[in-house]
Amino acid sequence: MDKNKRTFSVVIPVYNGEKYIQNALKSCLMQTVLPDEIIVIDDASTDQTEFLIKQIQSDRIVYKKNGQNKGPSFCRNIGIQSARYSWILFLDADDIFHPQKIEILLHFLLQNEQIKAIGHSFQLTGQHLFEPDELQMNSIKPLKLSTGQVLISSPIVTPSLAISAANGLLFDESMFYAEDHDFILRSSEKHGVWYLDLPLCTLGRTPLSPGGMSGNRWLMRKGEINMYIAYCRRNHRVAAIPFFVLFSLLKHARSKMVKRNN
Asked: Do 147 and 37 share a structural domain?
């Protein structure tokens, strides 16, 4: 297959990201295989975000700005609907891509035409940069996750997700917490989701840590419960709703206990 049949749009929502947006953009522009476009959706920032984005001279950057703050799901949906290329990658404004991310994804996508959504592992700021070698590339294979695995504890976060533009799904704009998990779950139900155990992005903060949209743990947990309820209703498993609600509440209690003991 001609590799030009795998082209890439990157979608980056940002709100008041003056401290890190340039690093995110540079991580896209320093790829060994460049993305075809980088769609930045500015969610009505009031700081220097717009100025700093426009300082980076690249015809690959497509800048859009909301008139008012709409939230990350709305922004990502604008990106999905605007994307002109065959694959869509997501990146949060305070995270960065590994320099070989697109090259490595392309390697696996060309070998696995059935994949419509794929994610990978991640590392945290300050960790040693992962350096793939030929042995790893030949020995690691994409693993298809079951919907049950994604439902209970998805190993994929939004900045590690890539979807085919033909995926046909959008983020649920009514959700402000766990909307990424919900999107990945619905992708799994529709087409299946594959996973690579390679850390091809670096997160600016630990998932669920203070400071981001997921910083409020209780609201995040309520979002997860809503996701479980929607899943059960969608799949005619209403009787399982109490189990999933209890499961989520137990996870919340455990996380509070761990935090208290640390």
From this structure: yes
Query: Could you tell me which of 175, 169, 172, 174 has the C-alpha nearest to residue 189?
Result: 169
Q: pLDDT tens across 174-203, in order?
A: 998 889 999 999 999 999 999 999 999 999
Q: Is the dihedral of CA 123, 128, 133, 139 positive or negative?
A: negative
Say whether both 95 and 170 belong to one domain. yes
With contact defined as beta carbons under 8 Å apart, do 120 and 54 qualify?
Answer: no
What's the domain range around 227?
A: 217-261
- Phi/psi at 105 (nearest 5 deg)? -60, -45
Q: pTM here? A: 0.89
Q: To which residue do tokens 């939230």 refer?
A: 71
Question: CA-CA distance, 206 to 67, in Å (whole number)?
Answer: 30
Of the residues 203, 227, 245, which one is the last residue of a structural domain? 203
